[in-house]
Design goal:
- InterPro entries: Bact_solute-bd_prot1, SBP, TAT_signal.
- This is ABC transporter substrate-binding protein.
- Pfam families: SBP_bac_1 (PF01547).
- With 437 residues, the chain is α/β, with parallel strands linked by helices.
- The protein folds into two domains: 6-161 and 322-372, Periplasmic binding protein-like II (D-Maltodextrin-Binding Protein, domain 2); 163-318, D-Maltodextrin-Binding Protein, domain 2.
- The chain has helices spanning 26-29, 60-77, 88-100, 113-120, 128-134, 140-145, 169-175, 183-195, 210-223, 225-232, 241-253, 266-274, 294-298, 333-343, 346-355, 373-383, 392-395, 398-414, 419-434, and strands at residues 50-55, 80-85, 106-110, 124-125, 156-160, 163-168, 199-202, 278-284, 300-303, 316-318, 321-327, 360-361, 387-389.
- The strands form three sheets. Strands 1, 2, 3, 4, 5, 11 and 12 form a seven-stranded mixed sheet that branches. Strands 7-8-6-9 form a four-stranded mixed sheet.
- Strand 1 (50-55), helix 2 (60-77) and strand 2 form a beta-alpha-beta unit.
- The chain is globular.
- The chain starts with 25 loop residues before the first helix and ends with a helix.
Length: 437
């Protein structure tokens, strides 16, 4: 998802929708104050024993995890990694001007559409040579996420995590609930939880991004992976009957969502699951951050969003994936290539996971023996998926999702009536934004 890496979530603010507004426009690509710049500056000659990395990992947990990886890489290769760390949101805001200037050799970024956008603009270098070395470490779905529109590789994934419906095993056990696998079973469970004086679905959309994930789940369960991709890419219409169907389904379960969601953060919503006031919560595995007590964490479990159309079953998993890209003109390309090869290795992923247990390795060859039960289940869900999606504003243009979809979905949550006029408005704005590329 956008800055849905677990480390970045706690700082997301309502101003999120102002980020990357002009991401698609050629004129806007050069706009913005280039405060985010490379480590050495434009006049510094390349040092064959140093690789520079532009990092958005500003929080303590990922910062340490990456430092450990780079230390191990130096031991192995003799190459020093000079890290240029910026605040997570600042990095997102200034990424356009940064990449057009004199960026670092390698930079942290996200898989999917966001990666493809910069690749298509010529602001990243293909890394097919890296994938000749690391290709055997990843499943086909992860390979697909790492390719540009031209079929070349531009991305090296490091970690990922699924979105699913979380619940407490003890609550289900005490009330005799069973995990629903179909939409009808899910709706019936919501009704029963409401009778049992539980909030069926915890929900907090104050920062405007969680609702994007709810729409994604309903859309690709009802309409399939291919339609999801077309809709996110601006190729399918938001006035299509399939989209209306997705919103009608959402309207059906909206009464079972926690009231006042637009004024509640995801952390506060998660606390209602911790305190057993809510029965379920749709979110990424980073929800585990809120379960600080060991016994509570042991009680946490999740299941895949239920099937809506049997034609699509539960084959698609939303799994935001974070990793690295190679800038357009790296000063030390040989060193950067070696670093990317190392970052695509099971060894690098295992080092990262020692510091951040809320995510799982993108590689199928990383050692999973130290995984918690939740991590093992997350890994199995992702590795067993037929299709992997990112979060809506990673699968689509961030300017579209932040300025159009986030406020539109909050409007829907406040008042689910008038869906047709809402979708007409979304489609009109979409045409304008996507035409600017």
């Amino acid at each position: 998802m956008h800055d849905l890496s677990p480390s970045g979530l706690s700082r997301l603010a309502p101003s999120r929708r102002t980020l990357l507004r002009g991401m698609g426009g050629a004129a806007v690509l050069g706009a913005g104050v280039p405060l985010l710049s490379a480590c050495g500056g434009s006049g510094t000659a390349a040092d064959p024993k140093t690789v520079t990395v532009g990092s958005n990992a500003s929080d303590a947990v990922p910062k340490k995890a990456f430092a450990d990886i780079y230390a191990a890489f130096k031991t192995q290769s003799g190459i020093t990694v000079d890290v240029n760390t910026k605040d997570h949101n600042t990095f997102q805001e200034q990424i356009n001007s940064y990449l057009q200037g004199t960026p670092d050799d390698v930079f942290n970024w996200f898989a999917g559409y966001r990666m493809q956008f910069f690749a298509a603009k010529g602001l990243a270098t293909a890394v097919d040579d890296v994938w000749q070395t690391i290709g055997g470490n990843f499943p086909e779905a992860m390979k697909a996420l790492s390719k540009g529109e031209d079929g070349k590789y531009y991305f090296v994934p490091l970690y990922t995590y699924p979105w699913a419906i979380f619940y407490r095993k003890s609550v289900f056990r005490q009330n005799g609930y069973t995990v629903p696998t179909t939409w009808d079973q899910f709706v019936a469970l919501c009704k029963q939880m409401q009778k049992d004086k539980l909030v069926p679905i915890a929900f907090g959309d104050k920062d405007a991004w969680p609702a994007l994930g709810t729409f994604d789940q309903i859309n690709f369960r009802a309409n399939g992976y291919d339609f999801h991709v077309e809709l996110m890419a601006g190729k399918a219409s938001w006035t299509d009957a399939k989209v209306r169907k997705a919103f009608d389904l959402w309207a059906e379960i909206l009464p079972y969502h926690q009231d006042g969601a637009v004024g509640r953060t995801w952390q506060d919503a998660a606390q209602t699951l911790v305190s057993k006031k809510a029965g379920m919560y749709l979110l990424g595995t980073f929800v585990g951050q809120q379960f600080t007590d060991a016994a509570d964490r042991e009680d946490l479990d999740f299941f895949a969003f239920p099937e809506i159309d049997p034609a699509y079953g539960q084959e698609t998993v939303e799994a935001p994936t974070d990793g690295f890209m190679l800038s357009k003109a790296p000063k030390n390309k040989d060193g950067a290539t070696k670093l990317l090869e190392y970052l695509g290795s099971p060894a690098a992923e295992e080092i990262y996971l020692k510091s951040d247990p809320n995510v799982v390795a993108a590689s199928t060859k990383a050692d999973t023996s130290s995984y918690s039960a939740l991590q093992k289940k997350a890994y199995e869900m992702i590795s067993g998926a037929k299709h992997l999606t990112q979060f809506m504003d990673r699968d689509s243009r961030p300017d579209f999702t932040s300025t159009v979809m986030q406020p539109a979905l909050q409007k829907f949550i406040r008042d689910p009536k008038g869906i047709d006029s809402l979708l007409t408005s979304i489609e009109r704005q979409k045409k304008t934004i996507f035409a600017s590329s």
